[in-house]
Amino acid sequence: MSFSQLFSLGVLILDVGIVLVLIPRVVVQRRESAATLAWVLVILLVPLLGALLYAVLGVQRLHRRRTRRRRARQRLDAASAAIRGAIARFNLGAPGARLLALGRLARGFCVDPEETTAGNAVTVFHDGEAAFQALCAAIRTATRYVHLEYYIFQDDETGRLLLEVLTERARAGIEVRLLVDAVGAWGLPQSAVAPLIEAGGAFARFLPVAIFSRPFSLNLRNHRKIAVIDGEIAFTGGMNIGNEYRSRDPSIGHWRDTHAQVRGPAALRLQEIFAEDWHFATGENCLGERYWPRAMPEGEVLVEVIESGPDRTAETIYRRLFVAITRAEHRVWLTTPYFIPDRAILVALITAAQRGVDVRLLLPGWSDHRFVLFAGRAQYAPLLEAGVKIHEYGRGMLHAKTMVVDETWVTIGSANMDRRSFHLNWEANLIFLDAALNAAMAERFLHDLAHASPVASPYNPPPLQRLGESAAILLAPLLLPCRPETHGPPHDGSSQGPMGLSQFFGPQVVG
Question: Residue 476: its pLDDT value, please?
């Protein structure tokens, strides 16, 4: 037998072995049917490539990750219970006619009255520069501790400026902890945070990627953006740390995002989430009584802090969004930069429109992640046919993650309307029950529509673009973005059209 015959036989045996081993693994994981079918087809058609993709993108070790995070959570249970006790008098289960009435409304939207707190003051930022300046100002007022957690933390002017502020606070004796995702903040060198550490601050990376010891952690990322100062002030939303979020990256231009500052009991809930993530990453407990605020009530807004991640089976954010859409009576105005809904969310939006609900989607006309943009557009036709109004934002990059429902319910957070945020990322969102905040967010939505173009129905893109969109939605369950693109939107504000294959399949990071 010749060498070429032996080689071919070896490859055949290897291919058969890969198929026999991997396909049962994929099936027993009970993914969504589309994802399972996609993985099975890739492994059958190109076993070697399928095995490589599965090693990088698969979630085989999710059970081990879940076990490890559950153990971390169990170690913090006593402190968490104490925090819940401290804020219990501010939740919707507390006495009071107004709270009881709002409690009934909350239950209608599947909001947990025991997790929703009154007594919060909320400031919403739609401009990255204003949000960043407010964050720095709050950090400078810290008297006890500053805790920050970000998916992306760039080593640029913005990142270095924030590190300087943190270092100054650390030198002043304030406890400073900075947690970044190992993949999202891959470009942040250890040398950049060395002054902070030397000043007494602490720094950690969430789930570092080690090829041999942790080959599957690349697919499970911490997408949260949380800052907590003294347990009294907290920030969360869509903004990471980098020049682009302040509209200072000339390759991108204007960056439209939404971030929220909360004062009151909800800030302590965000501290609880940070403490759990920090404990998981470092083993250190920062959830003791000394991390509680001295005073909590600041305003009248009702806030529920919700979290989700691959270590949880409840998928809280996903379910809250689904219920809000299905229970809506008057309007659902959704803004999201990355739109790849699963079948349930898609049907919920369609049936809401068919019930007469005013369903509007504000989506990007240009995206820093073109694959996701095209996968989203592949869903336009059935939505438009059902009466959903779709608008594509044309003034730079749209990155806000918000939803306004009826006249009271609002959410702002880190979660995108896609499968990755729902099932693979660790996310954090705020749900507000407040008529004034709802009206202000609705007004901002209409303001953004002035910079957007409506998508005509029926949706009929050019053949090449249609092919790209079909390929994107077919491959969406498989592909993982890995790094950001460097080119910005068209200078004329127009939407992205057909692209080359290298642009379409190029690795990207969804923030």
Answer: 72
